[in-house]
Amino acid sequence: MSRHTDLDRTRHAERTPGTVTEPESDPALADDPTAGNNLDKIRDILFGAQVRDHERRFTKLETQLLAEAAQLRQDLKERFAALEQYIRTEVEQVTGRLSTEEQGRTSAVGALTTELHTLAGVLQQTAGQLREQSEQAYRDLRDQLQHRAASITDEFTQHQATLSARLEQAVQQLSHQKTDRAALATLLHELSQRLSDDQPPQQA
């Protein structure tokens, strides 16, 4: 802003001498071309060096301002490029980290899913084995119970047959003993009768 102020001051200074020292226009001089030329020469003699100096300064200042403006534009362009590169780098880094984290999480989820599938397979296999073992154990137990029941039935049948044989034998023995007792009683009765018949008469 100070440079623009200096430029305005310089332009004002260039206009001021001519404005201040310029004589009032005379109608007589305006009609005379020679008088006008002389006036220009006088003005050039009086203010030419100052005007040229101001023009040089103005040109130098303008060149300097243009150079500084170009340099400023270049600096801004470089800074914007650096800022853009920095932002792009940061975005790429953040995107890379997010992508890496996403890949890591995807890998972790995949590994966990694989472990769950494996565990499910193991559980299914274990459940199948346990089912087969329980069914086999049930069949074995049923066979053992059936075999034991058959064995007990056979033993009971044998014991029953033995007891029946013993009972029948005892009944037969009792029947034989009863028969012997009846025959003995009959024999004793007959003997008693014979003894009675064979007894001599008693004397009076």
Explain how this protein is built.
- α1 packs antiparallel against α3.
- The protein is mainly alpha-helical and 204 residues long.
- 93% of the residues lie in helices and 0% in strands.
- The protein has a domain of 114 residues.
- The protein has three helices and no strands.
- The N terminus is likely disordered.
- 0% of the residues are buried.
- The protein starts with a helix and ends in a 6-residue tail after the last helix.
What's the SSE blueprint?
Blueprint: H1 2-21, H2 27-30, H3 33-198
Helix pairs in contact: 1-3
Protein traits:
disordered N terminus
Q: How many distinct helices?
A: 3
Helix share, percent:
over 70%
Structural class by sheet pairing and helices: mainly alpha
Strand content: under 5%
Concise overview:
The protein has 204 residues and is an all-alpha fold. Helix 1 (2-21) packs antiparallel against helix 3.
